[in-house]
TrEMBL record:
Keywords: Hydrolase, Metal-binding, Nuclease, Nucleus
Assigned GO CC terms: nucleus
Pfam families in UniProt: DDE_Tnp_4
Single annotated GO MF: hydrolase activity
Protein's name in the database: DDE Tnp4 domain-containing protein
Length: 292
């Protein structure tokens, strides 16, 4: 009899614990549903997400059909997954702090899963649609803008590399040994190659290489280089990327003998520093907004 009473008491306690946990999950779900980031002031909203509210609603609308919709009571709503991931992409904040923004109360693991799901959806369904190098017509407009602003013909973009600081990988990570991320400036980084147009819009970003990789090596393996070579072979002999001494002049003999380049070089020299300064400014803004 005494044993049965003890067992019954234990079962009652366990049931009460389960009910308490269930109620807690419901409260958390209500908290998430009631924590509407769109109620935030416009300036704070844009600081968190780098988008205006109207644009963010459009992003949520086009991405939502591709997101997993869970029916569990404690599941994160789809729009919150997207907002959480974009906040991380926009600010580069640590995942733990993002879960605490706009009163979500999300754990680091939940934030991490949201970031992965949104990243997978974007890469599978939207990457090639929205991220691409300009078409020939668009490049002609870019050349015109460079000429209007700087008096230089044939320029389709400024190119430069920048080192994005990272935490050194583990010594046990055989796929990412720390040594290859240690750059010549004395810290661990990823060397990011950026190409901007005349209005400082980023047309291409290559963040695949560790900090020890030289700018010239990144350019040598660049898909943009292969694309421009192909265009040159097809007869386009007046399209150039402008960079500093870290970005090598192509060793193709046809390029070296091109009269247009020599003529353009004389025009570039007086305004080259302005071009590079503008490129570095937008590069630094990109790094500050997306990696810090």
């Amino acid at each position: 009899m005494a044993l049965n009473m003890i067992i019954n008491a234990a079962l009652i306690d366990e049931i009460e614990d389960l009910e308490e946990l269930h109620n807690l999950n419901i409260e958390r779900r209500m908290l998430r549903d009631n924590s509407n980031p769109f109620d935030l002031p416009n300036t704070f909203f844009k600081k968190l997400f780098r988008f205006e509210k109207e644009m963010m609603l459009q992003i949520i609308t086009i991405m939502s059909p591709f997101m997993r919709n869970s029916h569990y009571s404690n599941a994160i709503p789809i729009h919150m997954k997207i907002l959480t991931a974009i906040s991380f992409f926009a600010t580069g904040s640590y995942q733990m702090s993002i879960g605490q923004d706009f009163n979500l109360g999300l754990s680091q693991a939940m934030v991490s899963r949201a970031i992965k799901e949104v990243s997978d959806v974007f890469n599978q369904h939207f990457l090639n649609r929205y991220i691409r190098f300009p078409t020939d017509l668009e490049l002609n407009n870019i050349k015109r803008r460079f000429f209007e602003k700087f008096g230089v013909g044939g320029i389709i973009g400024t190119i430069d590399g920048t080192h994005v600081a990272i935490i050194a990988p583990s010594e046990a990570d055989e796929d990412h040994p720390p040594a290859i991320y240690f750059n010549r400036k004395g810290f661990y980084s990823i060397n990011v190659q950026l190409i901007c147009d005349a209005d400082m819009i980023i047309m291409n970003a290559n963040a695949r290489f560790p900090g020890s990789t030289h700018d010239s090596a990144i350019w040598a393996s660049s898909a943009i280089k292969r694309h421009l070579h192909q265009k040159y072979e097809e007869g386009n002999h007046n399209s150039w990327l402008f960079g500093d001494s870290e970005d090598p002049y192509d060793n193709n003999d046809d390029y070296m003998d091109n009269d247009n380049l020599e003529e353009n070089y004389e025009n570039i020299d007086p305004v080259g520093e302005n071009l590079l300064q503008e490129g570095r400014r937008i590069r630094n803004n990109f790094i500050r907004h997306n990696f810090h």
